[in-house]
């Protein structure tokens, strides 16, 4: 069990006639992001959300609210919460593996949310046997169960000491790529332009390391809050210049030269890169905490 985390779901993982107790834990969270409240500009007070009737404009208390499906413009079928609950498939708390497939068979566009899948109390041997067999066979597992009041298809893959279970989008939820790209012009790039683009790619090859990625949006928000508290203004960002077709070849030539110069310079070590990222995170976190501590007395004063 991960320290300090509560399981999102507990049940059983079944493959063939073998089953073991498992638990799902959230693998990705947005709880560390900076959040804002909606404020009344005139008073500086926080705004509360109130539901009102679209026709009478009278407030509607929570106990008077229900669900409805629109059949025509302004015409609804009323559906009670009890009817919704009755329509939800019953959960048998079992992730039953239906098939083992090559890991590359599932297009990433179908991935929804990732969860860590760990053995729960008893059943560690069966869990480890499945994990190690999947690693050696280089396969993933397709399983189905009711998760969070919905029947979900889950892709299970070996991940470190445990497994990672990613809920999958249904086919009807994934939009057609053909429609997304149907208005793209048919262009065939070749000659020097293609060679320069390939050269730039070759000089920028690297490895995927999420520890070196920094959330610039969060950092910008922390800087903004800090600047507002100190009465400072932030510099305006420079506009991105989009390469025009007539200037594209010149831009590629310039980029190729810059890439070559960058490649000749000594590269930072992974330790230095991670240390830099750690300092950035620490700075952003300190700025956000400082902003929160300074903003609290200001709200009291108002």
TrEMBL record:
**Domain (Ku): residue spans on this chain:** 57-186
Q: Which UniProt keywords apply?
A: DNA damage, DNA recombination, DNA repair, DNA-binding
InterPro entries per UniProt: DNA_bd_Ku70/Ku80, Prok_Ku, SPOC-like_C_dom_sf
Per UniProt, the ranges with Low complexity bias are: 273-302
Gene Ontology BP term (one): double-strand break repair via nonhomologous end joining
State the Pfam families in the record.
Ku
Locate the region Disordered. 259-302
Which SUPFAM superfamilies has this protein been placed in?
SPOC domain-like
Q: Which domain of life is it from?
A: Bacteria
One function term, GO molecular function aspect: double-stranded DNA binding
Q: What binding partners and quaternary form does the record give?
A: Homodimer. Interacts with LigD.
Protein family: Belongs to the prokaryotic Ku family.
Cited function: With LigD forms a non-homologous end joining (NHEJ) DNA repair enzyme, which repairs dsDNA breaks with reduced fidelity. Binds linear dsDNA with 5'- and 3'- overhangs but not closed circular dsDNA nor ssDNA. Recruits and stimulates the ligase activity of LigD.
UniProt protein name? Non-homologous end joining protein Ku
From what organism does this protein derive? Answer: Rhizobium johnstonii (strain DSM 114642 / LMG 32736 / 3841) (Rhizobium leguminosarum bv. viciae)
């Amino acid at each position: 069990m991960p320290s300090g985390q509560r399981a999102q779901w507990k049940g059983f993982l079944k493959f063939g006639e073998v089953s073991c107790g498992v638990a799902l834990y959230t693998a990705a969270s947005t709880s560390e992001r900076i959040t804002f409240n909606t404020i009344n500009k005139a008073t500086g007070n926080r705004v509360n959300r109130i539901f009102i009737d679209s026709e009478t404009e009278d407030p509607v208390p929570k106990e008077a609210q229900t669900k409805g499906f629109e059949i025509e413009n302004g015409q609804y079928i009323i559906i009670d919460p009890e009817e919704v609950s009755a329509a939800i498939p019953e959960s048998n708390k079992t992730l039953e593996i239906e098939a083992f497939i090559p890991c590359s068979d599932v297009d990433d566009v179908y991935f929804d949310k990732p969860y860590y899948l760990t053995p729960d109390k008893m059943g560690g041997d069966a869990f480890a046997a499945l994990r190690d067999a999947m690693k050696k066979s280089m396969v993933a597992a397709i399983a189905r169960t009711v998760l969070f009041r919905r029947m979900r298809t889950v892709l299970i893959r070996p991940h470190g000491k445990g497994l990672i279970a990613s809920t999958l989008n249904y086919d009807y939820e994934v939009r057609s790529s053909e429609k997304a790209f149907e208005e793209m012009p048919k262009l065939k790039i070749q000659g020097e332009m293609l060679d320069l683009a390939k050269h730039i790619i070759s000089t920028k090859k690297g490895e995927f390391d999420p520890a070196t990625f920094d959330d610039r949006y969060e950092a910008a928000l922390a800087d903004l809050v800090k600047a507002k508290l100190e009465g400072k203004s932030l510099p305006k960002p420079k506009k991105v210049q989009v390469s025009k077709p007539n200037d594209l070849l010149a831009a590629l030539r310039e980029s190729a030269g810059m890439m070559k110069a960058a490649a000749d310079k000594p590269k930072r070590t992974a330790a230095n890169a991670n240390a830099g990222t750690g300092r950035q995170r620490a700075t952003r976190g300190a700025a956000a905490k400082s902003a929160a501590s300074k903003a609290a007395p200001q709200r009291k004063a108002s």
